[in-house]
Input
Amino acid sequence: MKKIIECVPNFSEGRDLAIIKEITDAIESVPEISLLDVDPGNATNRTVVTFVGNPDDVIEAAFCGIKKAAELIDMSKHSGEHPRFGATDVCPLVPVANVTMEEAVEYARKLAKRVGEELGIPVFCYEFAAFNEERKSLATCRSGEYEALKERISTDKWKPDFGASAWSDKVSGSGATAIGARNFLVAYNVNLNTTSTRRANAIAFDVREAGRAKRDGNPITGKIVKDKNGVPVRIPGTLKKTRAIGWYIEEYGIAQISINLTDITVTPVHVAFDEVTEKARLRGIRTTGSELVGLIPLQAMLDAGKYFLRKQNRSTGISDEEIIKIAVKSLGLDELTPFDPKKKIIEYVIEENAGKKLIDQTLTQFKNETASESPAPGGGSISAYVGSMGAALGTMVANLSAHKRGWDDRWEEFSDWAEKGKYYHTALLNCVDEDTDAFNQIMAAFGLPKSSEQEKLERKNAIQAATKNAIEVPLKVMQLAHDSLEVMKAMAEIGNPNSVSDAGVGALCARTAVEGAYLNVKINAAGFDDKEYLTKILETADKLIFSAKDKETSILKIVYEKIEG
Output
C-alpha cells in the first residue's frame, strides 16, 4: 500500500505573493508532490502550505522549500502578529496512510539533519521528533521568538539539535526552524439548532480536554476555585486531544462548536460528533450536522462510516464509496455545503492529481485497451483483475448473508468475512496497474543508453531490478488470489445458500488468477540472473498453484453438492 505523509510548513511571509510563489514552485519542483493548499495571512505575515506525497519525495520537497525561503526571507526585517523565529518557522511531518509515527520521526530527523548540515540553519526537533521532553513543546522551542534567538542558540541548554549554534549574518537572515512529527489535526465544526454563543460555549467546555474552571456555587458567576498554589482548579472535559469553543456563524445563521481534533487516533471525528450530540441533548439543543474545514485522511472517513454501520448492525465489508456515503449522511457533512470526497479526502485529491489509472477505466475501455496493439495491459493485469472479481463475488455472498432474513444475529460474523473479501479484492485490483507499471519499467530499462561501459552496467542493473519487480508483482497476485479462496470456501459452506453458485464462480476466478499470474512469474523469471533467488521464488509459486487447484476442487465439490441437493 502506498505510504503518504503530509507536510505543513509555515513560512514567515504572507504579504509578498511573488516570494510565496517562488517557495511553492520550489516545493513543486519535486514531481510526485501534490500541493494541496497555500494559505497566506496578511496580518500574521505568514503562509501555511500543505502538500503530500510519499515520504522521500516529501522531505525532498520540504528541503527545497526551506532552502528557497532562507534565500528570499530576511528575518531581521520581519514583523507579524504570529509567533515566529525563522524564515521557515515550523515544518511538521504528519503520517497520513501506511506510515507509523516512528517512521515519521525518522523522516523528520533526517530532514532536520540535512537542513542543519547543508543549509547551516539552526534546527530544533519538536513534538514526537524531539530528542528530550522539554523540546516537545513548539512554544518552548520558540520562546522569545526570533529576537531571543541570538543568545539562546549559543547556550548549552538551547543549542540547536542540528545546524549553526552561533550567530552569523546567515543565521540572522534565516532564523531557526522547528522540524517535527505530529499527528494529523482535523478542524471540525458541529452545527447546532441554536443561535446562542453562550450555550454553544457551554457545550464546548463540556467536551474539550481543558474543560472549564471550577467555581463555587453558581457554575457561571461563582468564584473560581484555586488550589494551594493559586492555580485555578479545572473540571476536565470528556474528550482527550480536543480543543473546542462555541461561536455564531452569521453566514449560516447558527451557532457551532468549533473543534480542533489534535489526534484523531485518540478522538476520531465520529466520537466527537456523538459526544457533542449527547452534551447538546442534555442542554435541550440538537446537533443538525457538521462541517470539515480542510482535508481529512481516507481512513478517518472509513472509520466513521463503519462506526455508524455497526450501530445499525450492518456489514462493514462494502465499498469505500458506500461507507463514505454513510459517514457523510450520519455526520451531516453536507448540511451547509455539498461534501465532495474527491476534494476533501487526501488520498482522493492525490489520485486526482496523479492522473487516470487502468482501474479508473470503464469495463469497455479496459477491454478495448487490452485488445489494442499495445502489449500492456497483458496477462498479468488480467489475472489480477479476474482475481479481484472473484474476491468481490465472495464478498457479495458475505454481505448478502449478513442481510439474510432470519440471520440477524449473525450479521457480525458475515461482516467479518466481507471485510476479508474486500481486502483481497481491493489489493488485487491495485495489482492491475502495478503489473502494467512493472512491464513499462522493463521497457524503460531496455531503452537506456549503452554506449560506454558505465552505461552498459547501469542499464544491466536497471533491467535486473525491473525484472525482479516484474516477477514479484505476479507472485503477489498469486498469493492474494490463493488466500482469497478462504472467503469463497467459507461462503460455500456457511453463506446464503441462494448464492452458493456465486461462491463457486469466485473460486474459479481466484484459481484462474493464480494460474495466470504463475505464467507471468515463469516468463519473467527467464530473464533474471540470480538463480538462488529464482529457486526460492519458483518453489513458492509451485506450492501456491497446486494448493489453489486443491482448494478450488474442494469448494466446487461443496457448491455442486448444495446445488444438486
Notes: The CA atoms of residues 41 and 101 lie 30 Å apart. The mean pLDDT is 93.
